[in-house]
Amino acid sequence: MEKLQPVRGTRDLIGEDQRRHTQVIDTARRIAALYGFEEWTTPIFEDTRVFSRGLGDTSDVVSKEMYSFTDRGGDSLTLRPENTAGVCRALVSNGLAQANLPRKVFYAGPMFRYERPQKGRYRQFHQIGCEILGAAEPLADAEVIACGWHIQQALGMTEGVVLEVNTLGDAESRDAYREALVAHFSAHATALSADSQVRLAKNPLRILDSKDEGDRKIVATAPDIHPYLTASAAAFYAAVTGYLTAFAVPWRENPRIVRGLDYYSHTAFEFVTDRLGAQGTVMAGGRYDGLVEEMGGPATPSVGWAAGVERLSMLLPEAPPAPRPVAVIPVTEAQEPQALAALRLLRSAGIAAEIGYKGNMKRRMERANRIGARAAVILGEDEVAAGNAQLKDLTTGEQMLVPLAELAALLR
């Protein structure tokens, strides 16, 4: 019979991979809580319109990468390719869009995109993210970025990671910039890739994101947005970068960071590194002041970021160690009831403890070493009769007789 394998672009998380994955999410959850973010969990699949509205029909994600299907009721559903749109939909559908704003939301979970698998990128992947919903002030932009930087610091992975920041300006700034881009790219229209020729008509800002080598050469001479910023947009950008400095977050300007959809405005940013090869972005986000409206809610200025757990896991300086339990070992079957009582006592005291299901004492000791146990609690006839146990340190080999009543305190 053929041995089944995981679907291309997916993988199993086992052992060290799972421990790295868990450390990233647990650390991010802990740091986000320090900044006042509460965790939301939204469905893994949504009405397809949540993403077609949220990401735009011309985006690569919507046009090429979404896992969409028609369910038995005839509804078009999509496995979420990202979670910002789902969080905005949840704000609206739960009646939270007009009270107690801003809302500070943290999330973690799997996402799905049909794209070419490569290092650190999968078709089922995982993201963490932070969103501040209902805050128009530049301090919100800086604080959400500072939270992301703090998470990376707590993970010990900031070496070689750089924060790059840009502004998309306000609507008036973008309109003027769009005209300048259309003029520039129209002069090179025949040299643009087919995708970028379509973007030139629909969304010229997205050409700046093109990965096509020919497009990149044309993009290199394209104008920056900064000369087209209104006074208020320039002041907003100056305030954000000033707050970043106050938060002690190092940054540099990159005028090529863009977000092509109309509801994005002002701040756009990426944490990038050269430690992951071609996939250099580990955390990215920006301000999206119109997305909640796309979900049927009121105007709700918002800002946030998302980060790939797989890529963050790869940047951890070392894997968390495997847990080291205590092995409880009855010398014969006659001591098994006392062994089970000791097992229950240790676990109730918050100490990880295991027992082998079969085998003589020698085999159970071999298993204790195999699972990396830190200690063995050995229960023989004489020890049980006296209310004691032999406690053996499996790192040093030292062994001593201890009262069962003191076992948990000693092992702590």
TrEMBL record:
The keyword Ion transport does not apply. L-histidine binds at E82, N83, T84, R113, Q127, E131, R259, Y263, Y264. PANTHER family: HISTIDINE--TRNA LIGASE, MITOCHONDRIAL-RELATED, HISTIDYL-TRNA SYNTHETASE. The lineage of its organism: Bacteria, Pseudomonadati, Pseudomonadota, Alphaproteobacteria, Acetobacterales. GO terms for cellular component: cytoplasm. One of its GO terms (biological process) is histidyl-tRNA aminoacylation. InterPro entries: aa-tRNA-synth_II (IPR006195), aa-tRNA-synth_II/BPL/LPL (IPR045864), Anticodon-bd (IPR004154), Anticodon-bd_dom_sf (IPR036621), His-tRNA-ligase (IPR015807), HisRS-like_core (IPR041715), HisRS/HisZ (IPR004516), HisRS_anticodon (IPR033656). It is found in: Cytoplasm. Its EC number is 6.1.1.21. Homodimer. One of its GO terms (molecular function) is ATP binding. Transmembrane segments: none annotated. Belongs to the class-II aminoacyl-tRNA synthetase family. Keywords: Aminoacyl-tRNA synthetase, ATP-binding, Cytoplasm, Ligase, Nucleotide-binding, Protein biosynthesis. The gene is hisS. It catalyses: tRNA(His) + L-histidine + ATP = L-histidyl-tRNA(His) + AMP + diphosphate + H(+). This is Histidine--tRNA ligase. Residues 1-330 form the Aminoacyl-transfer RNA synthetases class-II family profile domain. It is an enzyme of class 6 (ligase).
